[in-house]
Amino acid sequence: SENSLESLVSIGNICRSPIAEAVFRKLVTDEKLENKWRTDSAAVSDWNVGRFPDSRALSCLRNHGIETAHKARQITKEDFQTFDHILCMDESNLRDLNRKSNQVKDCKAKIELLGTYDPQKQLIIEDPYYGSEKDFETVYEQCLRCCKAFLEKYH
Predict the structure, then answer these.
(1) In angstroms, what CA-CA distances link 42 with 53, 71, 99, 126, 134?
(2) Which residues lie below 8 Å from residue 47, measured CB to CB, with a gap of 6+?
(3) Keywords for this entry (predicted)?
(4) What is the CATH number of domain 5-154?
(5) CA dist list (Å): 111 to 65, 82, 85, 138, 151
(6) In this model, does residue 1 exceed pLDDT 80?
């Protein structure tokens, strides 16, 4: 559609979703499509509201030449009514989002796993919080593949 919108969501909004959001924003900027997309990320829970992304997420992005100023926020009822796509990282995100969306009148968002778009068929993007730098790198690679494929499909 002329004015597609997208939202990227994960549990705490400090590891996976800020990476996905920053990656997608860079892709649309590189393709000169930033006026066609509104990109954001939010958390299902309110644990980390107002916090900056995990320092390992920031350092992973920086290694790939990407900056982000995102601060964690919780998903709102309006998100379900205004975004075309809400993409999440794992099954528990998906369940929570579907449950929340059922309480929203005129939910317009299509709620899916971001991994649905992975050409390498890695459906779940695992939370790297308790892992190593390498796990953050894996999340970055997955997000990049998925976001590219998603953008190709909807651009």
Answers:
(1) 11, 9, 16, 17, 24
(2) 11, 12
(3) Cytoplasm, Hydrolase, Protein phosphatase
(4) 3.40.50.2300
(5) 29, 13, 6, 23, 16
(6) no
